[in-house]
Amino acid sequence: MTSDQGRERHACRDVIRHLEDAYVARFPAEANPAPGDAPAPVDASGTGAEPSSAGVSDALAAELKAIKETTGKKGKKARDDDSERFKMLNLDMKACAFIRMRREEAAKCSPSDLVRDILLKTKAGGPDAPRSKHTNRIVPCEDVSFAGVEDIVKAAKPLVKKYFGGVVGEAPSSGEAPKPVTFAVTFAARANNTVKRDEVIKAVAALVPPPHTVDLTNPDLTIACEVMKGTASIGVAREYYALRKNNMRQCAMTDEERAAECAKYSAKPQEKNAEPSASDRVKEAVKEALKGTAAKEDEKEDEKEDEKEAGGKGE
Predict the structure, then answer these.
(1) Residue from 205, 206, 204, 210 nearest 178 by CA
(2) Which of 19, 167, 186, 268 holds its CA 20 to 30 A away from the CA of 159?
(3) 155-192 burial by CB neighbour count: b if 16+ within 10 A, else e?
């Protein structure tokens, strides 16, 4: 996901909250208990009597032991702690962050579906629509690889099979002809200038078998390739362009607000009668000087040609 510079943690906090809400909406039974909503201690004897102070002490000691087991030095959680369904990973990059989804939940529900649920609600509006002051784009990631064309293609193959029913050169996974859909491939790179955009797009698009066709205006499915330093992420998004390229801020705007935003950042055309700036005057002077030099060289060449012709006639 991308955010305002210096507000990466604020944006991740908002997006994680919205992802939790979207997941619980699909699986209500897996809602995490709110702080302070822990169940009251139960008497093991079944008599309904109040638990003894010794029982409470034992329960507290067991809870503290469990916390220490999942905690490293200086009170920090261990790296292998999977207690959080969604967690921010520090990429050490400005205006960009990564949110990890636990494998157990990702096997039940694709992160692409959760992101789509959030953006559809944001676009629909309303008092309960997801909002975030500092979040820009939320790009789903379903697999990661090294930032190389061959590695990206290798990671993209299972996703192409999943969403398009097969891969070029292989039999359909279901044994039946898949329903035709339109698709597009997008590419973005940050802190990496070795992976070429055209090479990745052509290689990934070549995996998609017929009868699926390319549509760069409003595709049904969009394969999003994002390169960050030495890592590449691959994901497939639905309604990518209809949801403003998964831009949460744009989805929350009205048509008038989006038009005003575009006008604010678009370059203002120079008026015909406006006085040229100092830099423009310098450019014009350089052009005129170059024209004069070229004209003088042409005159010299013409004089040489005339002298040759005159010498030839004299002979």
Answers:
(1) 210
(2) 19
(3) bbbebbbebbbbbeeeeeeeeeebeebebbbbbebeee
**Helical spans, DSSP H, in 229-274:** 248-251, 255-265
Position 82 scores a pLDDT of 67
How far is CA 123 from each of CA 127, 139, 221, 259, 267, rounded to the nearest angstrom?
12, 16, 19, 16, 28
Beta bridge partners of 145: 232
Determine if the peptide bond prior to 51 is cis (ω within 30°): no
Query: What pLDDT is stored for residue 63 in this prediction?
Result: 66
What span, in angstroms and rounded, lies between the C-alpha atoms of 163 and 236? 8
Residues of the chain falling short of pLDDT 50: 35, 38, 42, 44-45, 73-74, 77-80, 272
Taking the domains of the chain in order of start, what are their residue ranges?
A: 8-34+81-253
Neighbouring C-beta atoms of residue 17, cutoff 10 Å: 13
Report pLDDT for 80: 47
Looking at residue 199, its pLDDT comes to 96
> What integer pLDDT is reported at residue 250 of this predicted model?
93
* Residue ranges of E strands in the chain: 86-89, 98-101, 143-146, 182-190, 213-214, 221-228, 231-238
In this structure, the strands spanning 86-89 and 98-101 are antiparallel
The pLDDT of residue 142 is 95
175 φψ region: left (φ > 0), alpha (ψ -120 to 50), beta (else): left
pTM for the predicted model, two decimal places: 0.69
SS3 at position 154: helix
Q: Which amino acid is at 270?
A: Q
* Residues near 60 by beta carbon (within 8 Å), at least 6 away in sequence: none
Q: How far apart are CA 12 and CA 269, in angstroms?
A: 38
